[in-house]
Structures are given as structure tokens and as C-alpha cells.
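Subject: Interface between my chains keeps coming out wrong

I've been trying for a while to get a sensible model of this assembly. When I model each chain on its own everything looks fine, but I need the whole thing in one frame so I can look at the contacts. Pasting all components below, labels as-is. Any help appreciated, I'm running out of ideas.
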Amino acid sequence: EVQLVESGGGLVKPGGSLRLSCAASGFTFSDYSMSWVRQAPGKGLEWVSFISGSGDYITYADSVKGRFTISRDNAQNSLYLQMNSLRAEDTAVYYCVRDRIRSGRYGEFLNWGQGTLVTVSS
Amino acid sequence: DIQMTQSPSSLSASVGDRVTITCRASQDVSNWLAWYQQKPGEAPKSLIYVASRLQSGVPSRFSGSGSGTHFTLTISSLQREDFATYYCQQYNTFPLTFGGGTKVEIK
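Reply #2:
Try treating it as a single job with all components included. I did that and got this:
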């Protein structure tokens, strides 16, 4: 069974940093592209960042480019999101999401974690 | 960026009703379109990919259609467990973008 478990969320002041982690299990992690998707309280879904299985292709939403860094450790079956220069508008639940198949279209999501809440407030 | 527009933003329906949600893309996304269901307090659940293919385990009362810029999600006979918010998403081009959501409520 595929499991994605996020951690690392919490309360941080504007301008601060936070590192999210996603522990993956139940599949060969290195075979799958992964994304972070966020959802502000009471709002819709917003894609944040994508990383291919090998890590050789990475892309970001404009809203986080230059502030957030996605990475993965395939030996540890883990996905990360380093978030710097945080703003109030980054407050959201952050989901770790896996692509549906190994060699399919990038961004075709199947499995979602339960999410971790990041609150940016003074 | 490709803008995804869903309509309606909310609807009220009764158990057994046929429900249709529309999603329009600001430019051609071919059939690279997915639908997700989200219930309060839960993570989204993947329902449909490539516009019309059901994910494994999704009931057959759900169906998707369309290509290019116009897509629909249909629930043929609404069940109590289907009351939720539905999102479309294009994955033709980065940045990936979602529609604003359609909340399906009980009449």
C-alpha cells in the first residue's frame, strides 16, 4: 500500500524558514516523480513544486520560486521542501503527492499524503 | 499560465440526481485533465485522469469527458458519500493548475 506521510509543519514568523519532509513507502520511490501541492485555509488547491524521480528535472510555481527548494533522497525514500523567506500567504496545508505511474505524463497525480499545516504569523 | 475555470462554484442536489460539473481551460490542454474529490478535513482523492479514465476503485457512476478546452465531470446518480468539493487540474504544461473547485451540497 502506498503511504505518504508529511511532517515538519508548524508556526513560523514572517521571514522565517521551515523544512517539510514526506516519508514514502509501499513503492519504489526513485521510480516516481513527486510534487508538493498546498491549500490555504478555506481555499482551493495550488501546485507548488515538482521533482522527477531521478531529481534531474525540477520546477516551481512563480509564487514560491527563489524562496522554496524541493529535493529528494531516494536512498531514504524521502521528499523535502525547504521553505525560506516565508510570508503570511504561504499559510496552508502542504500535501506530498505522487504521480500515477512511473513513466507517465508529469503531474498526473494519484496518491496524496494527509498534509501538514504551515502557519506563517507573527 | 493556463487558467482553469470551473462552473458552477457550488450546487445543491438530492440523492439520485444527475450532476454535471464543467471545467474550461484558457488554452488547449489536449486530454491532460484530471478530476479530484475532496471531503472536509481530508486530502484530495484522485478520480479521473486523461479526461475520461477512472482511477481504480472509483465507482462507475463517475464519468469524465472532453478534450481541448472544455471538460465535464458527471455523477450519474448522486450518492450521499459524493457530497464533497471537486477540482479539475490540467497537466499539459507547467505550472500545473487547478480549477477553483465545485462544492456539491445536499439539497
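Reply #3:
Confirming on my end. The first strand of chain A starts at residue 3 and ends at 7.
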